[in-house]
Specification:
mainly beta; 29-stranded parallel beta sheet
Length: 569
């Protein structure tokens, strides 16, 4: 036998017949045992490597901090605010981790996150937030409808944090009824008496907390106002994710990141009663690089709204909302499907809205502002939208959200420009669209392409420059399909209606300049295609149309200059 590192297989005795080294059967058995030994050795080595790999991977993931291990009781009665913050503090002291809520009902006050913290609400878990207003004191730095100030703590809050997440298949319940009832009481008193009879101690606390920030006569501090907290407000944070949870009964705006960068909001189901006050669904304000997708929203105000601050305070901060995508969402009850404004004083730009369904909202796509806001809304793309049961306008762009007197153009003057809408279908709608610019500042550079809408009323636009319609069908039950007033640089390409029998012209223009009408192919029975009125009309070119079924293709008012319209069919 070999000395030193002799193979241990050679020392194995297999029975009497194996003492003979020249026995062929012994050799076969010995070789078989050698192979089996090697196989076992390799398996053991691979198993060890796998175990080491799993341990290494496990150690690289943030650990879970079960709130029940820190004293939380999931009975729906015990207030767990302190226990939850113990878990957050423990995770933060270790550099970060996941705060885990197993199935059960957890009553809590506001939850303040820290950097590198994930809130994971598992399936079957309910976070029910206290409806005791005092639990949301002391007040924190916040933004309320676009104005900076101190306010009740949001239900979830974070200030100047990084890498924070709320996720899971659980339920977040804001128990907003108490907040709505109190605000409703103040509104009722204000409507009845012109002022609130008795100022609450919470309103007095607001005034005291903001005495060095805002003037007491600022709009926010009217006696009839009551600044309810948003459900989720992360303020000046980076790398924010909110995903998959269901959120109900928000006291005020539901998901409201403020001045944040790199925000992902996906897979949320948000439901607030349709008669609840100001319970918008998702309101990013002055945020950059925002991704909103796969959400289902039914609320008491706007479903998704993009904002950037209000009036002087918004312009002072000067943080725009930009680089924003909204896709694959459904919106049911709500004042608007996707809305920009009215608080847009810091600008809103580079926005895409696509592949969404609005069913039952008051309006579909809405842009709103007014004199005093300032700011610019620009570089907006809307595509592949289906709307149904829209109570007012499918599309609304209004620079006179609150009517005021004309004033010289200044930093107070809002601007809407470079807005492009395509591939939109709408049915059972009161009005197809309404665009209203200011006398001193028109809406500029707007296109509508591949639009098909059934509505009681058609498409109205006033004080608009550089607007185009390509392959647009507006089936208006009453009145023209399109009505434009005080418009410069208008192109109509293939505009038509399926309801020529209502007797109205397909298009009615008043005081329009530089108009190009082509590609029209009206249905038989159309009495008038284009009706022009107003002494300020000029350079209206009508050419390349099929008007063989139209009794009066172009009808001019008496006041229209004789050279204003050029027809070349």
């Amino acid at each position: 036998m070999m000395s030193g590192m002799a193979n241990p297989i050679n020392k194995i005795k297999f029975g009497p017949a194996m003492f003979f080294s020249n026995d062929e059967d012994v050799k076969i058995r010995r070789n078989t045992m050698k192979k089996e030994f090697y196989r076992r050795t390799i398996r053991l080595a691979l198993t060890g490597i796998l175990i080491l790999f799993i341990q290494t991977c496990s150690n690289s993931n943030p650990p879970y901090y079960n709130v029940c291990d820190y004293g939380a009781i999931a009975d729906g009665v015990t207030k767990n605010t302190a226990a939850i913050h113990k878990a957050i503090d423990a995770a933060a002291s270790a550099g970060g981790g996941t705060i885990y809520f197993p199935a059960g009902e957890y009553l809590t006050g506001p939850i303040h996150l820290k950097s590198n913290i994930v809130i994971h609400v598992d399936a079957g878990a309910v976070l029910k937030f206290s409806d005791n207003f005092d639990d949301y004191l002391p007040m924190v730095l916040s933004r309320w409808e676009g104005t900076t100030g101190m306010n009740f703590s949001p239900l979830f809050y974070g200030y100047q944090l990084e890498n924070i997440t709320i996720q899971g298949r659980g339920l977040l319940d804001g128990q907003g009824q108490a907040w709505w009832d109190f605000y409703g009481k103040l509104r009722k008193e204000y409507k009845q008496y012109g002022e609130v009879q008795t100022q609450s101690r919470w309103q007095k606390l607001h005034l005291e907390a903001n005495k060095n920030t805002l003037q007491p006569d600022t709009w926010m501090w009217d006696n009839n106002n009551f600044l309810r907290p948003p459900f989720i407000q992360f303020y000046d944070c980076k790398n924010v994710q909110i995903r998959d949870v269901t959120i109900i009964n928000s006291p005020f705006w539901t998901v409201n990141p403020e001045l944040c960068d790199n925000v992902t909001i996906t897979g949320l189901s948000i439901k607030n009663p349709p008669d609840s006050y100001n319970t918008d669904g998702i309101n990013p304000s002055s945020c950059t690089n925002v991704h909103i997708s796969n959400c289902h929203i039914s609320v008491g105000d706007d479903c998704i709204t993009l904002k950037s601050g209000r009036d002087e305070d918004g312009r002072r901060i000067g943080r725009p909302a930009e680089n924003i995508t909204i896709t694959n969402c459904t919106m049911l009850n709500g004042h608007g499907g996707v809305v920009i404004g009215s608080e847009m004083s810091g600008d809103v730009r580079k926005v895409t809205i696509s592949n969404c369904i609005f069913d039952g909202t008051d309006r579909g796509i809405r842009l709103k502002s007014m004199r005093g806001r300032g700011g610019v809304v620009e570089e907006i793309r809307v595509s592949n939208i289906v709307m149904k049961n829209i109570q007012l306008e499918a599309i609304k762009m209004n620079m006179e959200y609150q009517k005021t007197d004309t004033e010289p153009v200044s930093e107070r003057t809002p601007k809407f420009r470079n807005i492009h809408i395509s591939n939109v279908t709408a049915s059972q709608t009161r009005q197809a669209a309404n665009l209203l610019g200011l006398d001193e500042m028109s809406i500029q550079d707007v296109t509508f392409t591949n639009i098909n809408m059934d509505a009681r009323r058609g498409f109205e636009f006033r004080n608009v420059d550089d607007i185009e319609f390509h392959h647009v069908t507006i089936n208006a039950e009453t009145g023209p399909a399109l009505m434009g007033t005080n418009v410069n640089n208008l192109e109509l390409n293939g505009v038509k209606t399926q309801y020529p029998q209502n007797g109205a012209p397909v298009v009615r223009l008043k005081n329009t300049r530089n108009v190009y009408v082509h590609g029209a192919n009206p249905l038989p029975g159309t009495k008038e295609y284009l009706a022009v009125s107003g002494p300020e009309c000029e350079n209206i070119v009508v050419t390349g149309n099929n008007f063989q079924h139209v009794k009066n293709p172009v009808v001019l008012g008496r006041e229209v200059p004789s050279q204003a319209v050029i027809q070349n069919q």
